[in-house]
Design goal:
Blueprint (H helix, E strand, L loop, with lengths): L5 H7 L9 H4 L6 E8 L2 H6 L5 E11 L10 E10 L3 E10 L5 E5 L4 E7 L6 E13 L6 E5 L6 E7 L5
Antiparallel strand pairs: 1-2, 1-9, 2-3, 3-4, 4-5, 5-6, 6-7, 7-8, 7-9
Length: 165
Amino acid sequence: MRIFTFCAVALAATSPAFAQTLDEILAPRPDTAACWHRTYSDAHLAKHPQQKVTAVDFYLDYYEMDHDEAGKGSYSFSIDFTTREGKGWAGGLCYQDDQGKVTCAGDCDSGALAIRNSGTEGAVLVELLSGGMRLSDCGDDTAFYMPAEPDDKLFLIHPAACPAD
């Protein structure tokens, strides 16, 4: 793997060279999952006072229904955000388009996000699309909207252990 400087990674991260297929992010084997996490340090948040997100957890899993051919199942996601104001989550399905872009569409029109290779071993970039996401708190039917503002649009998250079911 090539080593890039931070600036080169930031500029190249939007190019197709950093594209990863869903199969490369998570092998299409029944009941497999991958998880990523980041908690932002107080020092980082002090440098980015407009950033509302203090922690991100992203879960991706692959499953096959009885009618699916082997390796032709679906990918689902869940993303949990902790913000300065509270916690919220969204979930839905992920797909890959003909150009290789991986997009995850939230259930109930909650918004969409893109995931791609960060250039750092195992880490991914999660980008909020559609202007933001509508999040809800577990057990609370009251959703809140998190706009994709400059400091809350693109998140570098690192591999983490998945929580036990």
